[in-house]
Every structure is written in structure tokens, then in C-alpha cells.
Amino acid sequence: LERPIHLSFDIDAIDPTLAPSTGTPVPGGLTLREGLRICEAVHATGKLSVVELVELNPLIGTQCEVDRTISTAVTLLKACLGYRRSGNLPRELHSLSDEGILSMADKRKKDDHDG
């Protein structure tokens, strides 16, 4: 794909347990993980030129539901812009490359074996 990508992400594609403040909630919609994978994959192409997140309606639902929907939307937008999830790694490992983490794991395995 050589052309720039324009991503239009409808928040109502996300399951309403995560994004209830939308006009057309879809029970059984995408999980946050599935939405993040889409956004991360588009970012990884290096071709993303426009991203829009639509169908978020802060007039629908309780304040808690609005906040949850906004939090989900921000998380998805950050992924589109290259923010990487850190999972549950200890804080000191967040800046390590994948290779650095693997070499540390290999060293620990060797130390445990030699131990």
C-alpha cells in the first residue's frame, strides 16, 4: 500500500461495556485489545495521515459511562499515534528493547540452571 491511510474509527464498534456513550452501541462488539491491534497495525504501516474517531456522544449515559467511553477513545487514538502498551513489565524494563529483555531472560535461565 503506497497511498496515505485515512482511518475513520467508529467508537460504536467497541463493545458497550467499554464505550457505552454512543448512539448505536453494539453488544458483542470489539474488545479494547482488538481495537488496539487495529490501531497499532495501521500505525505500523507508517502511512497514517488522518485519524478520526467518531460516534462518541457525551450526552448519552451517566458521567461514569461518558468517562469510560472517553478513556477508551483516548487509548485507541494514542495507539494510532504510536503509543506502545507496556503490559505488566516492571518499570525499569519499559525502556529496554525486545532483544534486551530476551537476553536478560536467557541470562536468568542460565543462572537458574547453573545455580
Mean pLDDT: 84
Q: What is the general shape?
A: flat
Approximately what portion of the residues adopt beta-strand conformation? 5-15%
As for the number of domains, it is 2
What structural class is derived from the secondary structure elements?
Answer: alpha+beta
Largest sheet entry: 2 strands, parallel
Strand order of the largest sheet: 1-2
Outline the low-pLDDT stretches: none
One letter per element, helices H and strands E, the order comes to EHEHH
Termini separation comes to: 51 Å
**Helical content, roughly?**
40-55%
Q: Gyration radius, to the nearest Å?
A: 19 Å
Explain this structure to me?
The chain is of the alpha+beta class. It has 2 domains: 80 residues, no CATH class; 27 residues, no CATH class. The chain contains 3 helices and 2 strands; from the N terminus they run βαβαα. It has a two-stranded parallel sheet with strand order 1-2. It is flat, with a radius of gyration of 19 Å.
